[in-house]
């Protein structure tokens, strides 16, 4: 059940009229009373109604697109493709896209979802990785449930299959076999968020309100590392993404699965975590080469970090790929123009963003079970070769 004005009034021990005055800000209210009301609003996650024209249902012209970093081409491509579908909609009219930059903050993500609910957003598209923290998974599920209850369509775009598994564990998606599409190697479900609160289970999200378009991060990472092993590399460093993020976990799992398949030990000193940016890639590669100068290959969390890896390798007087092979992930537009051109894993960012836009507009049928896993494709270029004898 949605939290009402009366619920807030009861929690704050005031009248409903007083709550309304505090929230409107148009009437003088004692500071102590105002504080109790605002605390009750926060504790109950009460959502104030948005514009009067949108009170009846989630039928506004607003669609929220949540991204971790709008400056990252990964998110820019997806968000741009979503917006193109919104602006080109013939059925239902055009929608206003509002891009919300979370900076990777779980708290900011939840705040934006609440703000979008207040505005009665027609749809919300969440892109990229999520926090693996169980408490956040429960809070996110609750936020999505409130949006869905208000009639908002929700599309998870580029979130790993583990997010869908966590949602399934809390009742957000069907608890049956999920459909996949164009998957070279299905990712194993992860257990993030499986431990429910002891006293209260999170609300269920209506099944028709939530759609997940996931990338096969695990399968793509396994292909990439297997490619390097096939070239003859055995001492492979890994510049992983930020710890505690779902995409990082799946790509690292794929890398380790390839090592295990070929009987290569997963040595902890050969993995360094960092952000998905060039500076972190540089620092992580410098640390890996300090730990083990004999590394013959380095895989990076994404293409941007891979550019930093390349710079760190060159600054040590080493050549790419003659001395150290370097590989990235995502196949961002600049990858083919890097020197040498970057071996990477291609994700269908443009296509997936466009599909998310159509789903958000209700112009495309949901995949079976509400979940589709999109193929990751190995792209071999000049930055990788066989190690020197």
TrEMBL record:
SUPFAM superfamilies referenced in this protein's UniProt entry, alphabetically: lambda repressor-like DNA-binding domains (SSF47413), Periplasmic binding protein-like I (SSF53822)
Record-annotated HTH lacI-type domain positions: 3-57
CDD domains, sorted: PBP1_LacI_sugar_binding-like
Gene3D superfamilies documented for this protein: 3.40.50.2300, lambda repressor-like DNA-binding domains (1.10.260.40)
Keyword Cell membrane included in the entry's annotation: no
Region Disordered: start-end pairs: 168-203
Record key words, sorted: DNA-binding, Transcription, Transcription regulation
One of the record's GO molecular function terms: DNA binding
Pfam families cross-referenced by the UniProt entry: LacI (PF00356), Peripla_BP_3 (PF13377)
Cited PANTHER family: LACI-RELATED TRANSCRIPTIONAL REPRESSOR, LACTOSE OPERON REPRESSOR
Protein known as: LacI family DNA-binding transcriptional regulator
Species the sequence originates in: Streptomyces celluloflavus
């Amino acid at each position: 059940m949605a939290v009402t004005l009366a619920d807030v009034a009861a929690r704050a021990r005031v009248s409903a009229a007083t709550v309304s005055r505090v929230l409107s800000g148009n009437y003088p209210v004692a500071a102590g009373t105002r504080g109790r009301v605002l605390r009750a609003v926060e504790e109950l996650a009460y959502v104030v109604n948005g514009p009067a024209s949108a009170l009846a249902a989630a039928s506004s012209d607003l669609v929220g697109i949540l991204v971790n970093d709008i400056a990252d081409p990964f998110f820019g491509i997806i968000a741009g493709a979503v917006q193109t579908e919104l602006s080109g909609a013939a059925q239902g009219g055009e929608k206003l896209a509002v891009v919300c930059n979370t900076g990777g903050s779980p708290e900011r993500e939840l705040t934006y979802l609440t703000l979008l609910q207040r505005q009665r957003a027609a749809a919300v598209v969440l892109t990229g990785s999520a926090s693996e923290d169980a408490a956040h998974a429960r809070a996110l599920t609750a936020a999505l449930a409130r949006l869905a209850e208000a009639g908002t369509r929700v599309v998870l775009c580029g979130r790993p299959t583990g997010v869908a598994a966590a949602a399934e564990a809390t009742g957000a998606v069907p608890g049956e076999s999920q459909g996949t599409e164009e998957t070279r190697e299905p990712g194993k479900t992860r257990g993030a968020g499986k431990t429910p609160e002891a006293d209260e289970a999170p609300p269920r999200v209506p099944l028709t309100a939530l759609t997940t378009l996931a990338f096969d991060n695990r399968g793509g990472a396994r292909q990439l590392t297997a490619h390097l092993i096939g070239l003859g590399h055995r001492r492979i460093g890994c510049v992983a993404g930020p710890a505690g993020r779902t995409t990082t976990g799946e790509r690292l799992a794929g890398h380790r699965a390839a090592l295990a398949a070929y009987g290569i030990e997963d040595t902890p000193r050969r993995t360094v975590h960092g952000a998905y940016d060039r500076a972190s890639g540089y620092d992580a590669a410098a640390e890996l080469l300090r730990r083990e100068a004999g590394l013959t290959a380095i895989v990076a969390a994404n293409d941007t970090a891979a550019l930093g890896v390349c710079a760190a390798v060159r600054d040590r007087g080493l050549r790419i790929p003659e001395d150290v092979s370097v590989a990235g992930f995502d196949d961002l537009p600049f990858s083919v123009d890097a020197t040498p051109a970057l071996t990477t894993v291609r994700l269908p960012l443009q296509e997936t963003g466009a599909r998310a836009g159509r789903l958000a507009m209700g112009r495309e049928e949901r995949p079976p079970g509400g979940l589709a896993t999109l193929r990751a494709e190995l792209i071999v270029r000049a930055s990788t070769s066989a190690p020197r004898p």
